[in-house]
Structures are given as structure tokens and as C-alpha cells.
């Protein structure tokens, strides 16, 4: 039996994680849950899964949550300290990081220091502090098991193979809802257009990232740290069907791919059951129904966030954290209709230009630069 803590249990990945757990009552037990503000759903989850610890991220909702679940035998906490309490809960073996954004970084670091294996959906953690997080995972002997579909695919393709045998990681990207459009066609698009992902049903922030191709940029950085591969050996190819979730080209020229329907339950299940594979009743891929798997080059001019992410990763140090924080704020502003879609890369670039790089940052410096970048975004409005 594996005891599971989930940070971000009410979101897209969080709720799908609970669906997977439902399928394996003899394998998994939910011991701690955390969400941001959705006390309604969190309370329902607490009543159903009976965790021993529940946290609401937004501190002023503590009493609301307490009122809703006060009759249950579970401790209630709130705020950033509460998130760390969930991440380090003594009974948990695995922490699923399904919170959005760099908010996931500190709880993940603390979970690793407490010896928890991490089922990592929160890619922003590795973008902001991949060097520190991977070194800590090594030091504490914990596994970082990828949930992100591309990284799960690569993990499965590698199947334990030494990363010195990798020639290239080939990340697939759907291209998002605006694939094939030019910049002038993107001038007037709004959040409702950007939130229409062609293949995946996900939270708002990652869906906008998919539309700008920043998601793929973040994933390139995530892959660099997870698999210890140089940036020059990571390629991105547009694959509009999202059936091949990514590929690995080995030194002998052989390319191994992982395929499946666009459904996050499979990578979530693999991260939770690893190193085992377990049968399930998920819908199966039927290739003759799909008929065509196609590939094209990304349009790096129109979707400049991809190269912005490569540039930030090449700079290294605090730059990826700054890029990530600026992107988080820009996406939030776009979702509130305060800026235009094409402002997103411009804002990120301006913040990056103003940043004074720290080459080998401590975690505290990364957090300071993250906060600085967020404030800087607002000076640009
Ligand atoms: N969705 C997907 O298919 C995929 C997602 N990912 C990654 O997984 C992560 C989660 O994405 P997704 O599930 O789509 O996002 P959602 O927006 O659907 O969910 C985010 C979760 O984080 C919680 N949360 C927000 N703020 C706080 C806070 N201050 N304290 C505690 N919890 C908080 C939310 O709670 P509340 O509901 O209360 O606001 C919610 O449970 C992201 O990093 C994303 O990039 C990676 C691959 C695929
Ligand atoms: C499901 C998942 O892993 C997402 O990160 C997905 O890959 C987004 O699709 P894009 O390929 O459009 O970024
Ligand atoms: Mn992905």
C-alpha cells in the first residue's frame, strides 16, 4: 500500500489522480490533501477519502474549510506552511505535485528533504530550480517520477537506459489552438480562444501556455533536468494529434516513441504504480481509426515563447525562474483581459532583459528573483 499526499487535489491533475486511486483501492491510500481556494470540492474529497491532514492554500478560507469538515477526524491547516505540512506529512510515501506554478517549489523541496518520492506534474518547480531540486533528490535518495505526458513518455522510452546512450530527446507539441496562424491573426484573440485546446482538457494556466508554446519551452527545461540531457540535444516537433507523447533517439539511431490517447490518467497511473505496470480499463488507442500521424516544424517566429525558454535555459542561473514568474503573471493578466495575447512574450522578454543574473543561486535567491520578476511585470503595464 502506498500512502499518497496530493498538493492541488481539486485541479485537473489532482482530480484525475484521485480517479486513478479509485481504481486501485488495494494499492493506494490518500493521507493528505491540499487545494488553493475550492473549499467545496476539497471538503467533498476529505469526506470521501478520509485523509488525516487537509490544507487550504488561501489562509482566509481556513474557517470556511474547518466548518465544512470539522466533523471529520482530520487536521486542518492553511497557507504556505500548511502546504509544507502536507508535503512532509509523516505518513505519506509519495507526494503528487499537482499545484500550478512556482508555488509548488518550496513544498516539493521540503517533501524531498523528508524522503518522499515525488510524482511531479508541477513542471514550474524544475524550471525555476531544477539544479537544486535534482541535486536534493539525489542527496536524499528519492525518486522524481514524471507525470507530465511528454516526460512520462521519455521515462518509459528510456526504461532505465543510461542517459549517455541518448542522442536526442524529441518532445512532441500539439501546436495548440493557434497552430498555422500568423501574428496578425493573433492580435485580437481572447482567453476564450486560447482556452480551447485541440486535444487536452487542462487547467487554464497550462492551456494558455500550450497556446503560446511556452508550455513546450517549460517542458524542454523540465526534460533537461529530469533526464540530465544538454539543451542542444533536445528537439521539439509539432505533432497535432498528440498521440506520440514524445520520443528518444539513441546513439545508434534507433528512435523509441511512447503512444497513447491524450489522457493524463495513464501517465499519472504509471508514476503512482512505478516500477509496476497495472491493467486498467481506460479507452485504448486504435491506430487504424486515427489513420494519420503528422509532424511539422514549430513556427518559432509567431510563437516566440519557445525560443525565449531556450534562451533563458542557456543563460541558466536565476533566468529560468525569472522567465517562469514573468510568464505566470502575464498569463494571469491575459486571462483577466488586462493584456493581449501577443503581449505575453513581450512582457517576459522585457523582464528578462532587466534581470541581473545570479549564476549559481541558492533557493532563497531563486525565490527573491521570482518575487522581483512578478513585481516587474506590473511596472510594465
Ligand atoms: N492538466 C494537465 O493535463 C497537465 C498539467 N500539468 C502541470 O500540472 C500542474 C497542475 O496543472 P492543472 O491540474 O492543469 O491546474 P489546475 O488549475 O487545474 O489545478 C491547480 C491546483 O492547484 C491548486 N492551487 C492553486 N493555488 C494553490 C495554493 N495557493 N495552495 C494550494 N493549492 C493551490 C488548485 O486549487 P483550487 O482548485 O482550490 O484553486 C488546484 O487544485 C501545472 O504545473 C501544470 O503545468 C502537466 C501536464 C499536464
Ligand atoms: C498533457 C500534457 O502533458 C500537456 O503538457 C500537453 O502536452 C499540452 O499540450 P501541448 O503539446 O499543446 O503543449
Ligand atoms: Mn506536457
Automatic annotation (TrEMBL):
Residues 4-130 form the 1-deoxy-D-xylulose 5-phosphate reductoisomerase N-terminal domain. NADPH binds at residues 10-13, 36, 38, 122, 124, 203. Coiled coil: none annotated. Residues 259-375 form the DXP reductoisomerase C-terminal domain. Keywords: Isomerase, Isoprene biosynthesis, Magnesium, Manganese, Metal-binding, NADP, Oxidoreductase. Its cofactor is Mg(2+); Mn(2+). Mn(2+) binds at residues 148, 150, 219. InterPro entries: DXP_reductoisomerase, DXP_reductoisomerase_C, DXP_reductoisomerase_N, DXPR_C, DXPR_C_sf, NAD(P)-bd_dom_sf. It holds the Pfam family DXP_redisom_C. Catalyzes the NADPH-dependent rearrangement and reduction of 1-deoxy-D-xylulose-5-phosphate (DXP) to 2-C-methyl-D-erythritol 4-phosphate (MEP). This is 1-deoxy-D-xylulose 5-phosphate reductoisomerase. It comes from Thermincola ferriacetica.
Amino acid at each position: 500500500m502506498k500512502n499518497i499526499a496530493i498538493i492541488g487535489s481539486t485541479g485537473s491533475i489532482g482530480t484525475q489522480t484521485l480517479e486513478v486511486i479509485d481504481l486501485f483501492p488495494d494499492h493506494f491510500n490518500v493521507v493528505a490533501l491540499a487545494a488553493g481556494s475550492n473549499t467545496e470540492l476539497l471538503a467533498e474529497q476529505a469526506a470521501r477519502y478520509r485523509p488525516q491532514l487537509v490544507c487550504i492554500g488561501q489562509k482566509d478560507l481556513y474557517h470556511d474549510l474547518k466548518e465544512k469538515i470539522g466533523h471529520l477526524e482530520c487536521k486542518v491547516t492553511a497557507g504556505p506552511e500548511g502546504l509544507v505540512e502536507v508535503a512532509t506529512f509523516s505518513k505519506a510515501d509519495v507526494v503528487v505535485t499537482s499545484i500550478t506554478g512556482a508555488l509548488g517549489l518550496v513544498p516539493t523541496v521540503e517533501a524531498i528533504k523528508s524522503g518522499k518520492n515525488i510524482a511531479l506534474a508541477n513542471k514550474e518547480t524544475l524550471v525555476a530550480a531544477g539544479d537544486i531540486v535534482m541535486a536534493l533528490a539525489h542527496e536524499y535518495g528519492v525518486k522524481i517520477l514524471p507525470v507530465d505526458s511528454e516526460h512520462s513518455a521519455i521515462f518509459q522510452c528510456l526504461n532505465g537506459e543510461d542517459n549517455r546512450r541518448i542522442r536526442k530527446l524529441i518532445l512532441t507539441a500539439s501546436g495548440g489552438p493557434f497552430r498555422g496562424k500568423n501574428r496578425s491573426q493573433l492580435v485580437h484573440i481572447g482567453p476564450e480562444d486560447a482556452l480551447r485546446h485541440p486535444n487536452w482538457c487542462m487547467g487554464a494556466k497550462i492551456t494558455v501556455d500550450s497556446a503560446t508554446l511556452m508550455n513546450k519551452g517549460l517542458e524542454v527545461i523540465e526534460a533537461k533536468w529530469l533526464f540530465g540531457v544538454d539543451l542542444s540535444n533536445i528537439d521539439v516537433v509539432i505533432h497535432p494529434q498528440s498521440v506520440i507523447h514524445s520520443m528518444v533517439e539513441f546513439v545508434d539511431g534507433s528512435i523509441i516513441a511512447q503512444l497513447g490517447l491524450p489522457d493524463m490518467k495513464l501517465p499519472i497511473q504509471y508514476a503512482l504504480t512505478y516500477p509496476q505496470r497495472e491493467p486498467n480499463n481506460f479507452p485504448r488507442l486504435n491506430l487504424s481509426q486515427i489513420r494519420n500521424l503528422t509532424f511539422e516544424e514549430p513556427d518559432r517566429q509567431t510563437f516566440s515563447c519557445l525560443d525565449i525558454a531556450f534562451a533563458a535555459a542557456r543563460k541558466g542561473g536565476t533566468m529560468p525562474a525569472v522567465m517562469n514568474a514573468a510568464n505566470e503573471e502575464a498569463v494571469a493578466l491575459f486571462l483577466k483581459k488586462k493584456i493581449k495575447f501577443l503581449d505575453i512574450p513581450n512582457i517576459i522578454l522585457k523582464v528578462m532583459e532587466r534581470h541581473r543574473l545570479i549564476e549559481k543561486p541558492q533557493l532563497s535567491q531563486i525565490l527573491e528573483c521570482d518575487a522581483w520578476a512578478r513585481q516587474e511585470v506590473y511596472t510594465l503595464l
